[in-house]
TrEMBL record:
Residues 1-20 are annotated as: Disordered. SUPFAM superfamilies: Rhomboid-like. Keywords: Hydrolase, Membrane, Protease, Transmembrane, Transmembrane helix. PANTHER family: PRESENILIN-ASSOCIATED RHOMBOID-LIKE PROTEIN, MITOCHONDRIAL, RHOMBOID PROTEASE. GO terms for cellular component: membrane. This is Protease. It comes from the Bacteria. GO terms for molecular function: serine-type endopeptidase activity. Coiled coil: none annotated. It is a multi-pass membrane protein. Residues 11-20 have a biased composition (Pro residues). Belongs to the peptidase S54 family. Gene3D superfamilies: Rhomboid-like.
Length: 287
């Protein structure tokens, strides 16, 4: 005959109150609606029903498709950081031109110097005439007028590529139309005008693609082209080079098939860069 045995007492330590996984020192009886883990007030995020923890919110954000513009750029709220960054770099460079007499000569472009110091093809776009503020004011005003629109429409990366390659194309334009037998071969050029003209050309293309009225930007481009030929000491060659390159690259961005926008953007950027290099190398090989 057997007697009933008492139930065995639990051997493990008693369970404590639930704590937040991110902050084990904080007791929380509120649980995430997605994963069920406790979440303290600092880690709680209000959801449609109840609350979620910050980890689940971040995971959902990564999984959600990004909002895209009509040209595939990521829709971003807030300031146009690339445009502001370019303007800030130009302003800082202009101030350095005032305090350092060698700054302009160190980073400006002239055809004879570009062969051995090719970075000048780009750095020239961050310099302006050190003897007055009109040059930089007009260029920065133009950049602020069109930069945020293009940055939002195309996305930050493509906008930065557009500005940089337009700047280089402006210098290549100066190089191609210069002669080693003339003063133009050793004439220093400065300014963001080539890059800005590239943005003008891009605005024209993008607005045409959006079926919007392009008469205003066409007038701006036409007037600035005329000014380049009428007013002395303006590198109209840089304007022309930047305009053509900016319009061409923007056309690749704007007219790329939706399912191949990324590949077309990278390919067009690389091809334009290679073309500019080949044009510069070819010109130097002929002199």
């Amino acid at each position: 005959m057997s007697a009933d045995q008492p139930a065995a007492a639990p051997t493990g330590p008693p369970e404590g109150p639930p704590v937040c996984p991110r902050h084990p020192d904080r007791v929380s009886y509120v649980r995430c609606q997605r994963c069920g883990r406790p979440t303290c007030p600092e880690c709680q995020r209000q959801a449609a029903v109840g609350v979620q923890c910050v980890d689940c919110v971040a995971e959902a954000a990564r999984a959600a498709p990004a909002n895209r513009t009509v040209f595939g750029g990521t829709v971003r709220a807030g300031r146009p950081v690339v445009t502001i960054g370019i303007i800030a770099a130009c302003v800082v460079s202009f101030l350095l031109q005032q305090v350092d007499p060698t700054w302009t000569l160190r980073w400006g472009f002239w055809p004879a110097g570009g062969e051995l110091e090719p970075w000048r093809f780009l750095t020239v776009a961050f310099l302006h005439s050190p003897t007055g503020v009109i040059h930089i004011v007009f260029n920065m005003l133009a950049l602020w007028m069109v930069g945020p629109f293009l940055e939002q429409a195309l996305g930050r990366a493509r906008f930065a590529a557009l500005y940089g390659l337009s700047a280089v194309a402006g210098s290549v334009g100066v190089l191609l139309l210069a002669s080693p037998l003339e003063d133009s071969w050793v004439t220093l050029t400065v300014g963001a005008s080539g890059a800005v003209f590239g943005l003008f050309g891009a605005v024209f293309v993008v607005m045409r693609r959006m079926r919007r009225d392009v008469r205003s930007i066409a007038v701006v481009i036409g007037l600035n082209i005329v000014i380049g030929f009428v007013v002395p000491n303006i590198a109209w060659q840089a304007h022309l080079g930047g305009l053509v390159a900016g319009a061409a690259l923007a056309a690749a961005f704007a007219y790329a098939p939706k399912e191949r926008r990324g590949a077309v953007a990278v390919g067009a950027t690389v091809l334009l860069g290679l073309l500019l290099v080949l044009l510069a190398v070819g010109k130097y090989a002929l002199v």
